[in-house]
Design brief:
Elements (H helix, E strand, L loop, with lengths): L1 H13 L9 H8 L4 H7 L8 E9 L5 E8 L14 H13 L11 E4 L22 H10 L4 H10 L1 H10 L5 E2 L9 H4 L1 E2 L2 E4 L5 E5 L2 E2 L11 E2 L2 E3 L5 E2 L3 E2 L5 E2 L1 H12 L14 H12 L35 E10 L2 E10 L4 E10 L5 E2 L6 H22 L33
Parallel strand pairs: 10-17
Antiparallel strand pairs: 1-2, 1-16, 3-6, 4-13, 5-8, 6-7, 9-12, 10-11, 14-15, 15-16
């Protein structure tokens, strides 16, 4: 263990020029886990593009929280592909946008239909996973959070529009974030266009409609991001040059940690930084950030394939189960060899709470798009060991005042044993 303590401070020295930040406090905690894969990644954070933020939460006698972030190899300018992590900010912003439509009788459950406004767009008028068979913002958010489906993300992007999304992020001071594209393989110009849509009542009558929108203010792509030594193109041809992420989505791990903190603890930040979310909005997000697919009737996912820890990377091991009394409010992403998880953990049995965020890159052959990534060999085992290390540390950490976690006790849904509908076992995520 002494050998590890000596090595870890060298990370900070070696990467000072890259502006990475490592706190000795967190490095010491991580050094206590001698799992070989865990130490393999910790000892070479540059190779794995590793970044970790551990947030210690303490309460005073009035249950008011204070937050202290500790970093390991953190650099807000070190690119990682956020993949499905971007679904959380779009869920938040979609709920915000609905507030302006409340006077028309529109809420998250109102049916929302999309038109095809350009040849690369597709219409949407049905959603068989929902109770009434129709799409809605509520159903998009459920599907995006529960098992990280992709089409709901695209529809929220179309509902919000590229310009509105990025303007709102900047307005909230999230300056290391840029959401530039849908998951549809579109080019820069096409992603500036979004579909026309309409809200309809139970009789199919239009309540509100919005025409196709174009973002006439180009995003800033001046910072080039090139990774790897080659990639497979759409025809599976090997291109021997780095893959270009310059015009992809970008969110720093710090911004994602802030987004989740503002949802879970809105009063912990100044008013101008808070999202415009009602109590009902927050409760809705809490439920689907932490509910398991097996508990959810709509959509009715295959509980064997989409097991309880499926999108809980810090607790995902071979058992596929979660610890008793623990709920994780989080969003994960995986793509191009990157694995990311941003979580708030509430342990109701041990009466502890903390936040943990991490991302790493596992692509030893440096070829992108070949689906030969070390997710199972390195990525998931590392994130599980990281989660275990912090969970064990938090279970032992002394607190002057125990937290009141009642705000995070959710009345979760329950499937009926009489529900004979077939389960969803194949989704695009």
């Amino acid at each position: 263990m002494l050998r590890t303590f000596v090595i870890i401070p060298l990370f900070f020295v070696s990467y000072m020029n890259a502006q990475t930040k490592t706190d000795a406090y967190l490095a010491t905690i991580l050094a206590q886990n001698q799992d070989p894969v865990f130490q393999q990644v910790l000892n070479d954070p540059g190779k794995y593009r590793l970044q970790i933020i551990y947030t210690e939460i303490n309460r005073d006698k009035n249950n008011k929280q204070s937050f202290t972030n500790y970093y390991f190899h953190y650099d807000p300018q070190l690119y990682f592909n956020p993949a499905s992590v971007v679904k959380l900010p779009l869920a938040i912003l979609s709920l915000e946008k609905l507030h302006a439509l409340r006077k028309k009788g529109i809420d998250k459950n109102t049916s929302l239909l999309f038109d095809s406004s350009s040849q690369w767009q597709t219409a949407l008028e049905k959603d068989p996973s929902s109770p009434n068979g129709l799409p809605s913002v509520a159903q998009f958010i459920k599907r995006a959070l529960l098992v990280s489906e992709n089409d709901p993300y695209n529809r929220m992007y179309q509902f919000l529009g590229q310009g509105h999304i990025n303007n709102q992020l900047k307005k909230k001071g999230l300056n290391d974030s840029r959401i530039a594209r849908q998951f549809l393989g579109l080019n820069e110009e096409q992603n500036r266009h979004t579909n026309a849509f309409r809200f309809v009542d139970t009789d199919g009558k239009i309540i509100h409609q919005q025409p196709a929108v174009y973002n006439d203010r180009a995003l800033d792509f001046s910072t080039a991001v090139l990774l790897g030594k080659g990639y497979l193109d759409r025809y599976d041809r090997l291109i021997n040059e780095p893959f270009d992420f310059t015009k992809h989505n970008w969110i720093s791990l710090g911004d994602m940690t802030q987004m989740l903190q503002r949802v879970m603890f809105p009063k912990s930040v100044p008013k101008q930084q808070r999202f415009d979310l009602s109590k009902d909005d927050l409760e809705f997000l809490y439920r689907y950030l932490s509910q398991y697919p097996s508990e959810t009737p709509y959509p009715k996912y295959d509980a064997e394939k989409y097991y309880d820890s499926y999108v809980k990377f810090f607790f995902r091991d071979s058992s596929k189960k979660m610890p008793n009394g623990v709920r994780v409010f989080n969003k994960v992403g995986w793509s191009y060899g990157f694995l990311t998880d941003v979580s708030f953990v509430a342990d109701f049995e041990n009466n502890t709470e903390y936040m943990l965020a991490a991302t790493l890159y596992v692509n030893s052959d440096e070829i992108l798009n070949d689906n030969k990534y070390e997710y199972d060999q390195i990525g998931h085992p590392f994130l599980f060991q990281l989660g275990k290390t912090i969970y064990d540390f938090e279970s032992r950490r002394e607190r002057k005042f125990k937290p009141d976690l009642s705000a995070f006790r959710i009345q979760y849904e329950c499937r009926s044993s009489e529900d004979q509908r077939s389960e969803l076992s194949e989704v695009d995520n």
